[in-house]
Amino acid sequence: MKALFPHVATTRGVTVRVSVSFLAEQSQPAQGRWFWAYHVRVENEGEMAVQLLSRRWIITDGRGSRHEVEGEGVVGEQPVIAPGASYDYVSGCPLATPTGAMQGSYYMVGEDGSGFDAEIPRFPLIAPAVTQ
User: Which of 5, 4, 86, 73 has its CA nearest to residue 45?
Assistant: First the structure.
C-alpha cells in the first residue's frame, strides 16, 4: 500500500492516502502550464461512519505562491464512509510552474454529530526534467 500511496496522514481514525502523477499529455510547458492528477483514498479505521462534507486545499507553486481552495465535498460528492470502508477519487491540479506542492484537510462529521478536520498529507508536484 505504501508504494501505491506514498503520502499518508491519519486523524481520529481517518487515514488519507495520496498518490500523484504528472500528466505530460495535458501539460503545455511552453505556455507555462503543468498538470498533475492525484488519487486520494480516504479510509475509515474508526468505530463509526463519517461523512466528508468539505475540503480545503493549500496549493503552493514553485515560486512559493499559495492558493487556497475550499468547497463542498469532493468531485461533486459528500461520501459517507462506513467503519472499515474506504472512498477513492481522482482529481487534477494545474500549475504555472513545473514544481509545487499540495496539502489540506477534509471536514468530516461522525454519525454522533462530532466534526473534525482530517489532515490531507503534503505531497509534491514535480514535473520530470524535460531535455531541450
Answer: 86
Q: Is 26 helix (H, G, I), strand (E, B) or coil?
A: helix
| Residue among 35, 51, 45, 18 at smallest CA distance from 119 | 18
**Beta-ladder partners of 50:** 81, 110
* 3-23 b/e (C-beta count within 10 Å ≥ 16 → b): eebebbbeeebbbbbbbbebe
Alpha-carbon distance of 37 to 125, in angstroms, equals 9
* Cβ–Cβ under 8 Å, residues 98 and 62: yes
Query: Which conformational region is residue 37 in: left (phi greater than 0), alpha (psi within -120 to 50 degrees), or beta?
Result: beta
Q: pLDDT of 14-34, one tens digit each?
A: 999 999 999 999 999 999 999
